[in-house]
Write a sequence for this structure.
């Protein structure tokens, strides 16, 4: 990482220099767009939300007297007559992680002011997210079809259904919100709003390619959270 | 080479005073030099119609006033509820309609309204919005549109909360802690729609607050004006900033617990619900853990105390400094104390749960962390007193409120040391001692600061002074009255009167408690009524108060240095202010006036003994 160039400001060496840079006037994070800093802090707050969910899940799973269902059986999918454990979830995870890759590329092309490539990659990311949500809906309906409900579960502890639907639902909501914004941003990119600095519909702020990076931060976060949910629900 | 070295030396020595000629080689270091702006000036959306100027307004100052008014309105409802409770406690049966169910509902709504919808919204939403951009020299919050949405989310949250008074079964009556399982079981008042609306309202509040909170944080971090280093910010900003950090990390736990509680109620999940036998029948719930809710709730609940207290600490530091014409004693210590208290507040939550049946070693750990918080807090109290020491104290209304704060805060803090110890807490748990403690420390003390802040900043908001005579009357009734209410409650707690009881019936403490309860109730009516003096004062002074002019208190901080008073949208006219010093240069030896505003360049005060900041 190279230091950003700030006119009239010289970064100071060492830890005391770092403290001085941090406490200096105007900005704490030099050269960082305020929107980016805001997204980072929002994500920190959101991390606490998901941590609370997952810790509650651990506590709830630990205290229920009934047996927890075996994930490799509950989440198995029949492929050619053979139950394959974690098949669907492997594909879902792959799609979501891939969409993180396309998002990162979109940010790169955005900063290179390559409007077309950037727009197509955002669109690809949105479609990846949409596929993920669709497959999640499929998984939900499969479980519901087998009799799993938020309040009951034929395979064991009812808390399994409660926590599964609540936490994957909360995460799925995050993905869906992301997908909506990705479609909006794809439109704005193709329409050239970021090139000409067109003002936003609601916020009346000038458009800038930095917005794509900000949305990218959110998208990567949602993917990262999925990795944890995946580990806690499907591998434990 | 040697010149470079020397140059570096002087820069290091001066770096905290002015950033003199730094990075500009070959130019003679100029004492008044402040390096250029890093980011372009903010461009703002200016409202044109009545709706965009006053209702859906993006100006942080208007949003601050909106927050202030709505929080005050909600607070008055909380006040009326407390009157009704005191009527029942002092004179059982005097209010004919009052049943035990009503009483529990009033206790619950009073607690939740006062803590979340009144104090939190008032300090962070009200004072935060109004003061942060002005004090750090910004034109507005960094994201005004989201800031506006934040207020309207709060508006909806309050609406949903108050709607619960009008649904079948009424508002929830499970106590403000909303402990399951009883909060959602039949038999508890408002266990139907009441608790659902409460949870929904809290979720909305958290969502709305997050939008505002992000703005407060980023405005402080990324939008300060030239020369405004972190250690030149007024302590008000430090207090509100740190409290917002706490809120951003603590409210998630509230959001999660409220969501899980809603699901337990609406979908009959069993997150918090164990197997329950009711009248010989097993309910549909089973396998959940009620203690989990307590942990989640208090992981929010304890930082919440400091979300209310830290802005009060910050604001009172500024008020004391201005009105005793002295720099704040130990500014850096004050900043670090705020930060350390904020950090520690995340490690003490289970001291609210000593009687929940958790492991005693757990209690030992939490008692230790709790008592450690007393250290930075005591440092702050000493520093306030040392700021007053030999100051040129102006004993006006603002100063009276500040002194009232110190006294009530010390009082409430000392009882906190009692309750922080497990062995002392267990017998005092759920008695009036606890009620006295938390009302003193996070009810009355922050309220004193709010009152002081209103008298201090009203001239800025309205351009007119509040009446000092009415202000002093208001203070003395409130201060003496509040003591009459809460001081006897410590005694009630010691003799074992339990809190949240509708009536004492024929219990053995009745003889000694009855008179005390009557006295407390009379005082409560009086103190509550006295608050309307302030409202009268505000309404009258808005039109007929003495014009304040610029900077009526001779303060240094930026909010008084705007080109127009009251400040307009955009705050600073054409040019953003440039900062050369901290806001506490009062009574500097050798200076012409007893205050040196933050924008005064060093060359104008050459030869005075200003602090190096």
């Amino acid at each position: 990482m190279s230091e950003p160039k700030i006119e009239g400001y010289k970064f100071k060496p060492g830890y005391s220099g770092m403290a001085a840079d941090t406490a200096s006037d105007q900005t704490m994070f030099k050269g960082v767009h305020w929107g980016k800093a805001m997204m980072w802090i929002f994500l920190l707050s959101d991390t606490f939300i998901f941590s609370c969910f997952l810790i509650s899940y651990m506590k709830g799973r630990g205290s229920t007297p009934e047996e927890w269902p075996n994930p490799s059986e509950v989440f198995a999918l029949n492929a050619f007559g053979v139950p394959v454990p974690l098949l669907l979830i492997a594909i879902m995870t792959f799609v979501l992680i891939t969409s993180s890759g396309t998002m990162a590329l979109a940010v790169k092309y955005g900063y290179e002011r390559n409007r077309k490539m950037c727009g197509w990659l955002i669109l690809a990311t949105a479609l990846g997210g949409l596929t993920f949500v669709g497959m999640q809906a499929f998984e939900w309906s499969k479980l519901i079809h087998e009799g799993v409900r938020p309040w009951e579960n034929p395979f064991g502890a009812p808390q399994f259904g409660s926590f599964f639907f609540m936490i994957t639902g909360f995460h799925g909501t995050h993905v869906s919100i992301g997908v909506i914004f990705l479609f909006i941003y794809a439109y704005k990119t193709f329409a050239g709003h970021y090139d000409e600095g067109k003002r936003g519909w609601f916020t009346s702020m000038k458009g800038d390619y930095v917005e794509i990076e900000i949305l990218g931060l959110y998208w990567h976060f949602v993917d990262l959270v999925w990795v944890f949910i995946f580990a806690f629900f499907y591998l434990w | 080479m040697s010149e470079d070295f020397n140059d570096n030396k002087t820069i290091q020595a001066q770096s905290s005073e002015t950033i003199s000629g730094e990075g500009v080689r070959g130019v003679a270091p100029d004492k008044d030099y402040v390096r250029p702006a890093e980011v372009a000036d903010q461009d703002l959306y200016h409202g044109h119609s009545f709706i965009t100027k006053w209702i859906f307004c993006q100006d942080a100052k208007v949003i601050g006033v909106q927050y202030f008014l709505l929080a005050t309105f909600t607070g008055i409802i909380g006040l009326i509820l407390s009157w009704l409770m005191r009527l029942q406690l002092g004179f059982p049966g005097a209010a004919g309609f009052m049943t035990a169910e009503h009483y529990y509902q009033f206790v619950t709504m009073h607690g939740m309204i006062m803590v979340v919808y009144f104090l939190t919204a008032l300090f962070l939403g009200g004072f935060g919005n109004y003061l942060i951009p002005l004090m750090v020299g910004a034109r507005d919050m960094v994201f005004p549109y989201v800031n506006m949405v934040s207020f309207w989310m709060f508006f909806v949250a309050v609406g949903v909360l108050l709607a619960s008074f009008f649904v079948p079964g009424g508002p929830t009556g499970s106590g403000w802690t909303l402990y399951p399982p009883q909060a959602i079981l039949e038999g508890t008042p408002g266990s139907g729609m009441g608790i659902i609306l409460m949870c929904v309202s809290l979720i909305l509040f958290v969502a709305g607050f997050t939008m505002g909170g992000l703005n407060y944080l980023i405005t402080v971090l990324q939008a300060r004006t030239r020369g405004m280093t972190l250690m030149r910010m007024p302590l008000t900003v430090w207090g509100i900033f740190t409290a917002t950090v706490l809120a951003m990390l603590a409210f998630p736990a509230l959001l999660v617990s409220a969501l899980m509680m809603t699901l337990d109620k609406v979908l009959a999940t069993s997150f918090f619900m164990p197997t329950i036998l009711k009248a010989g029948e097993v309910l549909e719930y089973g396998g959940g853990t009620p203690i989990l809710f307590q942990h989640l709730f208090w992981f929010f609940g304890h930082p919440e105390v400091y979300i209310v207290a830290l802005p009060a600490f910050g604001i009172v530091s500024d008020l004391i400094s201005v009105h005793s014409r002295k720099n704040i004693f130990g500014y850096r210590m004050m900043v670090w104390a705020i930060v350390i208290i904020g950090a520690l507040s995340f490690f003490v939550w289970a001291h609210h749960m000593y009687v929940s049946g958790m492991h005693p070693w757990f209690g030992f750990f939490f008692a230790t962390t709790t008592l450690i918080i007393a250290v930075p807090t005591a440092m702050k109290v000493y520093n306030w007193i040392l700021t007053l020491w030999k100051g040129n104290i102006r004993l006006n209304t603002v100063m009276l409120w500040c002194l009232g704060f110190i006294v009530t805060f010390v009082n409430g803090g000392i009882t906190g040391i009692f309750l922080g110890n497990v062995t002392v807490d267990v017998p005092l748990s759920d008695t009036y001692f606890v009620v006295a403690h938390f009302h003193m420390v996070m009810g009355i003390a922050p309220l004193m600061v709010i009152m002081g802040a209103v008298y201090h900043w009203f001239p800025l908001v309205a351009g007119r002074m509040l009446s000092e005579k009415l202000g002093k009357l208001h203070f003395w009734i409130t201060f003496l009255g509040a003591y009459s209410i809460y001081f006897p409650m410590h005694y009630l707690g010691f003799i074992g009167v339990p809190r949240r009881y509708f009536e004492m019936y024929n219990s053995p403490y009745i003889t000694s408690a009855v008179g005390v309860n009557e006295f407390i109730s009379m005082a409560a009516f009086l103190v509550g009524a006295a608050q309307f003096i302030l409202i009268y004062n505000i309404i009258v002074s808005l039109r007929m108060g003495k014009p304040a002019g610029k900077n009526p208190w001779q303060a240094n901080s930026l909010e008084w240095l705007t080109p127009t008073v009251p400040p307009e949208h955009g705050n600073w006219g054409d040019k953003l202010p440039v900062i050369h010093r901290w806001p506490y240069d009062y009574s500097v030896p050798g200076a012409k006036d007893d205050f040196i505003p933050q924008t005064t360049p060093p060359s104008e005060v050459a030869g005075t003994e200003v602090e190096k900041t």
Chain B has one domain: 52-272+285-560. Residues 52-272+285-560 of chain B form a domain with the Cytochrome C Oxidase; Chain A fold (CATH 1.20.210.10). Residues 195 and 286 of chain B are 20 Å apart (CA to CA).
